[in-house]
Amino acid sequence: xxxxxxxxxxxxxxxxxxxxxxxxxxxxxxxxxxxxxxxxxxxxxxxxxxxxxxxxxxxxxxxxxxxxxxxxxxxxxxxxxxxxxxxxxxxxxxxxxxxxxxxxxxxxxxxxxxxxxxxxxxxxxxxxxxxxxxxxxxxxxxxxxxxxxxxxxxxxxxxxxxxxxxxxxxxxxxxxxxxxxxxxxxxxxxxxxxxxxxxxxxxxxxxxxxxxxxxxxxxxxxxxxxxxxxxxxxxxxxxxxxxxxxxxxxxxxxxxxxxxxxxxxxxxxxxxxxxxxxxxxxxxxxxxxxxxxxxxxxxxxxxxxxxxxxxxxxxxxxxxxxxxxxxxxxxxxxxxxxxxxxxxxxxxxxxxxxxxxxxxxxxxxxxxxxxxxxxxxxxxxxxxxxxxxxxxxxxxxxxxxxxxxxxxxxxxxxxxxxxxxxxxxxxxxxxxxxxxxxxxxxxxxxxxxxxxxxxxxxxxxxxxxxxxxxxxxxxxxxxxxxxxxxxxxxxxxxxxxxxxxxxxxxxxxxxxxxxxxxxxxxxxxxxxxxxxxxxxxxxxxxxxxxxxxxxxxxxxxxxxxxxxxxxxxxxxxxxxxxxxxxxxxxxxxxxxxxxxxxxxxxxxxxxxxxxxxxxxxxxxxxxxxxxxxxxxxxxxxxxxxxxxxxxxxxxxxxx
Length: 655
Known about the structure:
With 655 residues, the chain is α+β, with helices and mostly antiparallel strands. Helices cover 27% and strands 29% of the residues. Helix 5 packs parallel to helix 7 (509-525) and helix 11 packs antiparallel against helix 12. The longest helix is centred in the C-terminal third of the chain and has 21 residues, at 484-504.
């Protein structure tokens, strides 16, 4: 438990500073008021530290779309191959209630960067019994909240000639005064009932950040971060009221505007800094009042309390006075996080899946506890519905009960479906883990592995993956270099469990994806050992630690490192491609070792090699297409190989 003070002074409650809206479901990006805040409730959150109990967890496809909650419906978006999907789950059980898919093929080529993924990055909005969202390629659509039945849809590229931004569409729509407002190639306002275009403003090109709303003397302003400027529109008809130049080297704004208090709007961008705009009484003018180049928000959000803004510049948590841009405090030691406010409590979720509980005030931060909730990349801001926390990482959506700690009661939900013999072995493993009894853990794991060979125990693969999550989470409690030995043991244990899971079920995507997330853990703890773990191909298939220098897995890992590491750190794409090609030639002798399913490892490297060829200068399209074909010969159902082959062929034909 992290209980030490991180500020030098005792901290007071902030309840008096917060003006909270009436309780409402989380129906849009940022919640009811788009400010990532919920009411305090009658009591503080019971959770302080450790791993909270898991209510349910479901696998998702790629995407960074946030989670919406209304009633018993939990809704999000993801990618499924060449389709995008709206999907709804029961809030109590996690049961999938419905899904709606639509075609959304991602065009391949230098005009679009999918290195951060090609799933939906925009968060949908729930309004009047419908769910409306914007996809990666620019499909905007509404479906029925109760059933998932489609209501209407527009492909903005075809219907309105809207180009796809370099990293895909990411701005989250909002509904105001009966209009669904979408930032895409400008701003378009639709009737959410039937999709009719009500107004549009194409005088500028929108960026990736989501817009905000501001009231000024009876007029509602739409504050839009655009490419190289900030724009103020009349939300009633889209009329341009003012624009303020604000351009970094990429002409990109990721952080959404912070509105209020009073007449203030704060905008922040990476490589540029933060500015404070004062908006005139009638909303027709904006005046730049201050600038702070030392505070630069990137993809993480921020929260406001009174006149103070809290957010991260890299790994520096800071408080900034909205009225003059001056710092209250700047604190190092917490990884960059997305923030959520519940009354005077703050929850901070960093990219590694660690959740912190803290109090913030202008002169410091006090951390009360922490828990490692995920071992996968967690870039999506969490959602809090009373005491249920919804966390979406790279691969899953998980609901946590912040009233209870993880323990045997949670395990029994799964164990009740198993045989008494298997239930006893699972209980033995759990008890050994909680005691920290290494010999006991090994003995219980061996027994489970022997039992897992029986066909009726195939579901044990999921249990191995679950405990791998637990082991990797323990790294957080001693994950710095001073206690790296213990942390490495935890990650090693997670690798062994995941290898066992893949051996039981070669198609178990969660296990393969979680293996890939062990790479940054090793790198942080011991970079020398990390160099022999490879994240191979679009499936992020990563493999256990090996020591043989001639092993193609090691060569492939080094090849990818050389391709993707920036030149100033020693990157050499040409040498990386060469190492990959040598590794591929040697795979025939090695494939299937160490419990990894035959075919997957080899095919994944062919996919990675094909992607690297497509990113070469100039792209080597024919060779890339052949690489994807090789992958499909090994694993015919490999989605990434199919998508890569289609993209390489389409690009070659275009020439």
